[in-house]
């Protein structure tokens, strides 16, 4: 399993899975603390019609046009939510739910009706990505990591998601202080000069970029799971945000690696002859990690638990 | 209850002092804030003298906190001008420290007491400067002033309400400001904390700083404050506590909701 076949068939999907998971989990930490976890969910739904429309217009699955399509869809979603809220006098959460599910449904319908048979873009792909197909044809073994010709044959999704994951890390390091401050205490943050509105907006944009980049490779199931499960489990491991972020990266990576291996080899161990979806398994593993953290992690607090007197 | 002679005496003593004091610490002109159709704060003017201990007083929903937040630019105002020590708000922002209502943040947030106090040094630390020993020591000294030095490494969710309020005050101290704006600092805190907080505020005044609190406990106004601003959406009265915190003004502020029996029990200026 660790030989050339592994490098050719499994190394790149695992790396792409890990990087996708990390890129989504990093902004997810802040979204959860801001009680905006569903924004991640929402974004991953909204991008679908945007990407499909971008494809129908350009006829290609280039990342730039997909990103623009997703951004356009996000703008439409925001307008739609405002319209539903005002015209229907509905509370914001419900308006969001209505807007995002209907936009996702519209995306699915568009996909089914349009001719996307020439490219790898269909409903199944949208949900589960195509992680297993992102293999490294030109690899001949570990030594290919140092072979420029072989490296040129890496699936383009890998450098793309690597760049996005790196961007997330850099943004978080540079804006750590204002991001943490405005997440904890927005009013105070404003008085010391943190542009709190801009911080909140930039966080959602960063999450959207991570979602679009990961969506392409791994589908919306993982995106939704990775925004929420690793950060939520990490919160239960520690009472310090710095440490929570590290745990979320560990859990995201663990989910990706374990999920991929279990999907590929797990069914064989039980005598089945088909592997199951890696994306689905990765999301499931992240859910199991969260469940274990809920019963066993050191810093679980019951909501409304009595505090020390003093 | 108009003790005219005393009032005149107090007033006569006050007017020249205010002149000599120069610019007000905080001056609000025609502040109007609206959350919906009807205004929460309507055309309020105020002039908080430098080196005073001032209180904003009024019934629930009178717009006290809103007025404070609008002065700080946290909530948008429809109209109004804010001047701090004679300068426009933006230029003087660094001279202001702010203590929000305790209930306005999530105390389950994963951070420690010392980290919250260090947030008060944000202006100095900026985006990337490292927290050095002197920063940490400054933060610890602020915690010590509110009697919380032993709790520096605690997660903030493990504190009682009073302790949380003291941590917020320590963060404001770390800002090293000249004007301290506090939103209901005594709300829901234990007696020991209230004592500790008022002692710190009085020490600030002694150090020539200005303190302005949104305050709702009428019983302690005369003991704690020397300047009051009575509001109920509009400004009802403003001036030295000794002449302004009167039964008539309170009735006007609370719109008769305050039973006269209640007012009789209050400690009012003699």
TrEMBL record, chain B:
Family: Belongs to the ABC transporter superfamily.
MF term (GO), any: ATP binding
Entry superkingdom: Bacteria
CDD domains for this protein: ABC_Metallic_Cations
UniProt source species: Stappia taiwanensis
PANTHER family on file: IRON TRANSPORT SYSTEM ATP-BINDING PROTEIN HI_0361-RELATED (PTHR42734:SF5), METAL TRANSPORT SYSTEM ATP-BINDING PROTEIN TM_0124-RELATED (PTHR42734)
The protein, known as: Metal ABC transporter ATP-binding protein
Any Pfam family the entry gives: ABC_tran
Keyword set, alphabetical order: ATP-binding, Ion transport, Nucleotide-binding, Transport, Zinc, Zinc transport
Domain ABC transporter positions: 26-258
SMART domains per record: AAA
Gene Ontology biological-process annotations: zinc ion transport
């Amino acid at each position: 399993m660790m030989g050339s076949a592994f490098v050719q068939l499994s190394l790149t999907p695992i790396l792409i899975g890990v990087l996708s998971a990390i890129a989504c989990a990093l902004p997810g930490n802040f979204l959860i603390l801001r009680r905006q976890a569903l924004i991640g969910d929402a974004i991953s739904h909204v991008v679908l019609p945007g990407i499909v429309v971008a494809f129908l217009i350009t006829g290609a699955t280039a990342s730039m046009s997909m990103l623009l399509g997703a951004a356009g869809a996000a703008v439409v979603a925001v307008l739609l939510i405002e319209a539903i809220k005002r015209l229907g006098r509905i509370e914001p959460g419900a308006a969001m739910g209505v807007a995002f599910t209907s936009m996702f449904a519209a995306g699915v319908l568009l996909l089914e009706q349009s001719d996307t048979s020439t490219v790898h873009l269909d409903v199944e792909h949208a949900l589960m990505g195509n992680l297993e197909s992102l293999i490294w044809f030109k690899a001949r073994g570990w030594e290919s990591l140092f072979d420029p010709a072989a490296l040129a044959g890496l699936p383009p999704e890998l450098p793309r998601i690597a760049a996005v994951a790196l961007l997330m890390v850099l943004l978080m390091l540079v804006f750590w202080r204002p991001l943490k401050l405005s997440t904890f205490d927005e009013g105070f943050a404003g008085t010391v000069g943190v542009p709190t509105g801009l911080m909140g907006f930039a966080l959602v944009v960063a999450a959207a970029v991570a979602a679009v980049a990961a969506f392409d490779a791994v589908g919306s199931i993982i995106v939704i799971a990775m925004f929420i499960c690793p950060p939520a489990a990490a919160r239960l491991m520690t009472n310090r945000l710095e440490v929570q972020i590290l745990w979320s990266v560990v859990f995201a990576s663990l989910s990706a690696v374990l999920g991929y291996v279990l999907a590929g080899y797990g069914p064989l161990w039980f005598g089945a002859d088909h592997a199951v979806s890696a994306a689905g398994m990765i999301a499931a593993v992240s859910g199991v990690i969260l469940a274990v953290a809920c019963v066993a992690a050191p810093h679980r607090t019951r909501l409304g638990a009595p505090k020390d007197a003093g | 209850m108009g003790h005219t002679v005393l009032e005149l005496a107090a007033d006569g003593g006050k007017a020249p002092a205010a002149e000599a004091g120069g610019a007000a610490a905080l001056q609000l002109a025609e502040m109007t804030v609206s959350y919906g159709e009807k205004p929460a704060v309507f055309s309020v003017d105020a002039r908080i003298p430098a080196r005073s201990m001032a209180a904003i007083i009024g019934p629930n929903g009178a717009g006290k906190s809103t007025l404070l937040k609008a002065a700080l630019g946290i909530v948008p105002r429809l109209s109004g001008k804010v001047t701090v020590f004679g300068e426009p708000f933006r230029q003087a922002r660094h001279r202001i420290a702010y203590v929000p209502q305790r209930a306005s943040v999530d105390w389950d947030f994963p951070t420690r007491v010392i980290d919250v106090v260090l947030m008060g040094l944000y202006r100095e630390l900026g985006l990337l400067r490292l927290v050095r020993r002197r920063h940490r020591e400054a933060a610890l000294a602020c915690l010590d002033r509110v009697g919380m030095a032993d709790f520096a490494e605690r997660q903030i969710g493990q504190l009682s309400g009073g302790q949380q309020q003291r941590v917020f005050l320590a963060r404001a101290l770390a800002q090293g400001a000249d004007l301290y704006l506090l939103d209901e600092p005594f709300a829901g805190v234990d007696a020991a904390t209230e004592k500790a907080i008022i002692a710190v505020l009085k020490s600030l005044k002694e150090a020539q700083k200005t303190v302005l609190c949104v305050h709702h406990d009428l019983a302690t106004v005369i003991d704690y404050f020397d300047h009051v601003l009575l509001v109920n959406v509009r400004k009802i009265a403003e001036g030295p506590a000794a002449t302004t915190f009167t039964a008539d003004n309170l009735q006007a502020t609370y719109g008769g909701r305050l039973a006269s029996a209640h007012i009789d029990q209050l400690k009012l200026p003699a």
